[in-house]
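Hi R.,

Here's the chain you asked about this morning:
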Amino acid sequence: MIQALETNGLLQILLLTLMAGLAMPLGAAIASVERIRPRWLETEVRHSVIAFGGGALLAAVALVLVPEGTSNLPVAAIVACFAAGGITFMFLDRWLAANGTPASQLVAMLSDFVPEALALGATFSISSEGGVLLACIIALQNVPEGFNSYRELAQATGYRRLQVIGGFGAMALLGPVAGAVGYFLLSDSPQVVSGIMLFAAGGILYIIFQDIAPQASLKRHWAPPLGALAGFLLGVIGEAVLSG
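And here is the predicted structure, written out as tokens:
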């Protein structure tokens, strides 16, 4: 009986994290649709979606990664993990820039998705309902992040439409892998999960202010900042539902 319950729980984790991950190629597929006309509307939509993704990432940092990360660690470890994440992502950003590979949106998307999938797997046995809600929230975040990552890669590389979308589909498999690792290896190691989440939070915060927020700015247009508010509000709603 216990083994059957464990198998059922693992299957649910794999399906939920895969569903959340498949939101990335879904967002990429939407972004690949023929450009919107007129041009000013295309520009407004693109910047608004970038801002929405930035707001969603900021919500993930403020409402999920940092609160969960700080709950099991002393102050010194919190500072070390968070700072290490920011500094590591700074060096990664510099390396990508030096090699002419703009991928800040992609890095931010995976940095958000993988730790949350780990946490979902590690905590699923405690609250399966919370796991379902968390997976839905991750999926909603991944759609605009997949959209932005596709546009970034399509503009900076020679990859074809199906190559990028297929690559994002392969990345979706990281969700079940991370969920299984969290379920089997980290369910009894909350400090490790907390450290990973804080590391990711520091890195994501660096990317938001280094790359994403500057891209979202558009003079004399108000939709992009409203998009950022909507993205953050998505995280607030998710947190309120999970807490309730």
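One quick note: The chain has a mean pLDDT of 79.

Cheers,
M.
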